[in-house]
Amino acid sequence: MLWQAKYPYTVALKSYAERELGYYGPVEELLSDEDAFRLAMKRLEAAISREGLPDSIGETTWEEVLSFHAALAAVALSGSLRLLRRFALAEAKRARRLLRGEDERGLLRLARALGLEARMDSLSINWLYSRRGGVIPRILQFSLGLANYLRVAASLEDSRWRLSNSFLLGGRVYLDREGFEDLVSARVADRIAELADEYRELEVAGLRELGQRFASSLDYEAPGVFDPSLFPECIVEAVEEARRGDLSPHRLYMIATFLANINAPVDYLEDLLYASGIVSRAEARVIAEVLLSEARRYRPYKCEAALERGVCSKCRGSVLAEYWKAIRRSRGTPRSGRRA
After folding, report:
1. CA-closest candidate to residue 145, choices 174, 120, 104
2. Which residues neighbour 155 within 8 Å (Cβ) at sequence distance 6 or greater?
3. Which of 91, 175, 317, 337 could disulfide-link 180, Cβ–Cβ 3.0 to 4.6 Å?
4. CB-based contact 135:126 (threshold 8 Å)
């Protein structure tokens, strides 16, 4: 399999199309093609499946490159950070698998293509004592600058990546083959998230709808009961307006207090804030967590107040009461459920 097919995030779609196809038109036309839609759907279906992404999606290198960029465009246009994380992690897992078949130079090539200032090294440290009295060394074959290492490790939760658990010498962090493969694949996920920002402003209706369809198919994990399909109509309208960029202070208050009082997951509000375009990908999570934490102290506007502020036009009382009533109906338990 050619390099671009294995690691399509290392090439830009436009420059690759110019070089390989002689195509010099806008990227939107490439991504609006029926093949792009078909391949994007195939790649996304695999990415969110339990089996994960296979080594190959398309039949040619061009189809591999197109399938990745079209799928990423769909993810970016959906406005869903949850779908973006799911897709990026699936690609990183595929990359980790493919890296096992690379020699050291191939592994180093990918690292550098991803912006890591890595190099091959050979640092030997005493690691284990054998029962026969000898010492088994640990060979650290790769190294990268401290700033580069921290850039990737900052996004990783495992304590193994803390600087206190790393081999640091002369301003460089040293890793063995397995650790370096893990770090490079983690960088793949970060790089994909960066590339997604470049596709957010494209106008490709078909891929936007495809991305939103996959985003809505992901289940939100939250304690208790959470079902956006049962939101009161006014909340549904407020959410839709917010996704279109109309997130006034009153609308944000209404949405945040409603979500906080039904114990909604942070992911849902994070997605909504990002989709609205008012905050960056990095800011969305922090702001969502703070908003929900503070909003639990308050209640959504009552019908009259919501009408005065132009937030609601459909409710006939309490949005919380309406939601829990819908939950009880869906479960067939008219008296059970939380009270508003």
Report:
1. 174
2. 186, 189, 190
3. 175
4. yes
- Burial grade of 38 (CB within 10 A; 0-12, 13-18, 19 or more): middle
Q: What are the tokens at 255?
A: 């949405």
In angstroms, the CA 296 to CA 280 distance is 24
- Residue-level pLDDT, tens digit, the chain, 340 residues: 799 999 999 999 999 999 988 988 899 999 999 999 999 999 999 999 989 999 999 899 999 999 999 999 999 999 889 899 999 999 999 999 999 999 999 999 999 999 998 988 878 776 666 666 677 777 888 999 898 888 888 777 777 788 877 888 888 999 989 999 999 999 999 999 999 988 988 889 899 999 988 988 887 766 567 888 888 888 899 999 998 888 888 889 999 999 998 889 999 999 999 989 888 888 999 999 999 999 988 888 776 667 667 666 555 567 888 888 888 788 765 444 333 3
Q: Are 91 and 188 in contact (CB under 8 A)?
A: yes
Cβ burial of 59 (10 Å; 0-12, 13-18, 19+) is exposed
Torsion-angle region of 203 (φ positive above 0: left; ψ -120 to 50: alpha; else: beta): beta
Question: How much is the pTM?
Answer: 0.76
Amino acid at 238: A
How does DSSP classify residue 300?
A: P
Whole-angstrom Cα distance, residue 261 to residue 293? 10
Long-range pairs for 106-109 at CB < 8 Å and ≥24 separation?
A: 107/142, 107/177, 107/180, 107/181, 107/184, 108/142, 109/3
Structure tokens at 213: 């369809």
Spatial distance between the Cα atoms of 186 and 71, rounded to a whole number of angstroms = 19
With both helix axes pointing from N to C terminus, report the angle between 13-21 and 61-78 in degrees, rounded to the nearest 10: 150
